[in-house]
Amino acid sequence: MDLTVWMGVMIPFLGTSLGAACVLLMRGQLRQNVQRGLTGFATGVMTAASIWSLLIPAMDQSAHLGRWAFLPAAGGFWAGVLFLLLLDHVVPHLHLGSQKAEGPRSRLARTTMLVLAVTIHNIPEGMAVGVVFAGYLSGHTAITFGGALVLAIGIAIQNFPEGAIISLPLRSEGVSRGKALLWGVLSGVVEPVAAILTLWGAGLLVPVLPVLLSFAAGAMLYVVVEELIPEMSAEPHSNIGVLAFSLGFTVMMTLDSALG
Question: For residue 96, is it within any domain?
Fold first, then answer.
């Protein structure tokens, strides 16, 4: 793998790790409004990335199909949604702020299931980075290295608060700072793994890149709607999440337009 691509794939993981390291500098949990704002920002980044970095390129690459150019993107999108729905049902996990675990019954510790919840939605982010870099390496698409790098940086930006959001609550659950940091970092390991596997697979299946791009978009938007939007909009009512969402969306849209 090209060194620059390898570094690009690792950028989102770096964002998660730096965010998790906040547990070494801060005491207690994040204030509710701060946590809600960070979640909203991450939601905006993921939504914009799904549209500008994944769905639009997927349809552009299918332009030769004429009026049916939407079909590969639509099919891949639904495949991504159903894939995350399947993971939601087969992996025991617990969302932050929830008392009831999802998925099959399990005797896993609460902290483990909290980490699994974050890990599940890190999978599509890793896949998104992998497939975009695969598009760049193929040389047959309109995806540039700058565009792939922007997606990696955008996901790293939204991973920073995610790393903090997972490590700090673990600390409040009684986990030591070192272990909370370790769990936070491990929750992000799945991203480069998913990226590399997707990069390898997509490299063998260049003709279906539009489907893979939209697959990643569908999986990411499933996480946005199923988990992140409810978290940023939870009671008591506040507009902080919406404003942070708008900021994150604007930042990612601007990066993609200016540097992509």
Answer: yes
C-alpha dist (Å) from residue 49 to 61, 75, 150: 17, 19, 9
Q: How many domains does the chain have?
A: 1
- For residue 73, the tally of other CB atoms under 10 A from its CB is 25
What pLDDT tens digit does each residue of the chain (260 aa) get? 577 888 888 999 999 899 888 888 876 666 778 778 888 888 898 899 899 888 988 888 888 888 888 899 999 999 999 999 998 888 887 776 667 777 888 877 777 787 787 788 788 888 888 888 887 887 755 677 888 888 888 888 878 877 887 787 777 767 788 888 888 888 888 889 888 888 777 666 667 788 888 998 999 999 889 888 888 887 777 788 899 999 999 988 888 877 76
In a domain? residue 8: yes
For residue 157, give the DSSP letter: H
Cα→Cα distances 9→126, 196, 213, 245, Å: 8, 8, 16, 25
Q: Measuring CA to CA, how many Å separate 132 from each of 41, 138, 148, 229?
A: 22, 10, 6, 25
User: What is the span of the domain harbouring residue 172?
Assistant: 3-23+42-259
